[in-house]
Design a protein that fits this description.
It is a single chain. Helices cover 41% and strands 13% of the residues. The chain is of the alpha/beta class and 143 residues long. It has one domain (2-142): Rossmann fold. Strands 2-1-3-4 form a four-stranded parallel sheet, with helices on both faces. Helix 1 (13-27) crosses helix 6. It is globular. The structure holds 4-nitrophenyl phosphate.
């Protein structure tokens, strides 16, 4: 299965979800490919935010090698499932969908809730990490 995690900048939330799910899937020997992208292009080519790298490292997950990418419509062809972090991401990704099959691939990462953007609030990196970790733990069982 090929999974894409999407947020706005692709330097905080989606790199964490990318790193954590990759780590958990490999622990369970699942043949999954997990990548991430952002709906905005400001940070393309950059490593994740240092605060995201730090919180992941604290829990044993290395995301420092990741580089930000911009979401493009071709990603609908390359991935089976596309998980977005908030409702604006959902709107932006769906605006690029070409057909119903594309639209069906997109869902909120947390199903009923959003992952808050920690970019402007240092204190949010830890709770955001915990939220992402809990959901990734579920995903390795339900997908
Ligand atoms: P992310 O956080 O969407 O979780 O990667 C953000 C990163 C950068 C910006 C906004 C959100 N920014 O405006 O540059």
């Amino acid at each position: 299965m090929k999974i894409l995690m999407v947020c706005l900048g692709n330097i905080c939330r989606s790199p964490l979800a990318h790193g954590v799910l990759t780590y958990m899937a490999s622990q369970d020997q699942l043949d999954w490919t997990v990548h991430s992208a952002g709906t905005g292009d400001w940070h393309v080519g950059q490593a994740p935010d240092r605060r995201a790298i730090a919180v992941a490292k604290k829990y044993g997950v290395d995301i420092s090698h990741q580089r930000a990418r911009h979401f493009i419509p071709e990603f609908f062809d390359q991935y089976d499932r596309i998980f977005v972090m908030d409702r604006q991401n959902m709107e932006d990704v769906l605006s690029l969908a070409r057909n119903e099959e594309d639209r069906r691939k997109v869902s909120l990462f947390l199903e009923e809730d959003i992952v808050p953007d920690p970019y402007y609030d240092e204190e949010m990196f830890e709770p955001v990490y915990k939220m992402i970790e809990k959901r990734c733990h579920e995903l390795v069982h339900v997908l």
